[in-house]
Amino acid sequence: TLDIPLDFYVSFVEHLKSSTRILALFGAGLSAASGVPTFRGAGGFWREHDATELATPEAFNRDPSFAWQFYNHRRHLALKAKPNRAHVAFAKLADKKPEFLAITQNIDMLSQRAKHPAENIQPIHGSLFDIKCTNPLCTHVEIENFIDPLVPDFEFTGENDISDVKFPLKNMPLESLPRCPQCQSLLRPAVVWFGEPVPMAAIDRIHKWLDGGKVDLMLVVGTSAKVWPAANYIHAARVTGARIAVFNNDEPDLDEPITRLREQDWFFQGDAGVIIPDVLK
Ligand code: BJW
Ligand code: ZN
């Protein structure tokens, strides 16, 4: 069904079959087929703001109301979205390959909703559905809060696409934003913004897994591999001798050492939602 040379496809499938220690790095392109926008490129704008500029502590501090409406909208979209066939194919791979670990940069929880076992997936940029207090002295956190809208003022009027600047945004007073039940400070999404550390528990778990031995196969799925430390796990797998398979609808950036592929690696170009279920079956 796919336009991939047969021997290329077969060499990948054979290597996959003989692999036990498989690492994956997931990015936004994995959820593209579910309708979740990516960060870089054409889809990466929200009300004319570059999504990567909104994903910063500075953007939140400058205008918490705007930032919260951005996250509320993305929570709403992620909840409406359904896991696609690639999410499901990876969940099934985890059942077949108990040592498989997927590092996901995605915060949409679609892999988890596709029943990817928790022991085979490690999120590193948090979740849209985890909420924490902005007060550094307060420990309040909410895990898997799927309430939508989080506060009454976040209710959308009709089906207005508030990511489009032509629809008016509500002017929300700070008091009406999500507040901490313990200390009344502002709450924030428990996601990892630029300049913030990836949670230590996530880093530790990945390092423990890497210490477990040589990586047979590294799957790089729908990520621009421009964000650190995530991108570095590709390198970490490669230096143990892993062969690398990249799945992306765009050519890898060959000027970057991280995404420069070698003779023994594979690049599958196209929609991950189509190719992944085909090559993992
Ligand atoms: C398809 C497809 C389809 C489309 N099928 N494919 C200079 C050098 C090196 C590092 C730094 C530096 N300056 C600053 C840094 C550090 C910084 C960093 O990496 N910056 C670089 C951008 C330069 N990193 C950090 O700040 C990290 N923290 C840190 O370093 O802490 C240090 C520290 C230690 C101790 C104390 C304090 C600090 C944190 C990074 C957090 C990233 N967070 C975000 C936002 C999360 C919240 C939110 O979503 O709002 O995570 S940014 C954004 O990028 C998000 C994503 O997870 C992440 C990666 O993006 P991804 O998934 O790759 O998406 P895209 O859009 O870039 O790519 C999609 C790809 O899919 C494309 O290739 C498409 O072609 C493809 N595609 N459709 C297949 N259908
Ligand atoms: Zn608090």
What does this protein structure show overall?
The strands form three sheets. A six-stranded parallel beta sheet has the order 5-4-1-9-10-11, with helices on both faces. Strands 7-6-8 form a three-stranded antiparallel beta sheet. Strands 2-3 form a two-stranded antiparallel sheet. The mean pLDDT is 94. It folds into two domains: 1-36 and 83-125 and 197-281, TPP-binding domain (Rossmann fold, 3-Layer(aba) Sandwich); 37-80 and 127-191, SIR2/SIRT2 'Small Domain' (2-Layer Sandwich). The protein has helices spanning 6-18, 29-32, 51-54, 57-62, 64-80, 85-96, 110-113, 200-211, 232-239, 272-280; strands at residues 22-26, 45-46, 49-50, 101-104, 121-123, 126-133, 141-142, 187-191, 217-221, 243-248, 266-269. It is α/β, with parallel strands linked by helices and 281 residues long. The chain binds ligand BJW and zinc ion. Ligand BJW binds next to helix 2, strand 10 and helix 10. The site of zinc ion has 8 residues, from loops.
Short description:
This protein has 281 residues and is an alpha/beta fold. It is built from ten helices and eleven strands. Helices cover 32% and strands 16% of the residues.
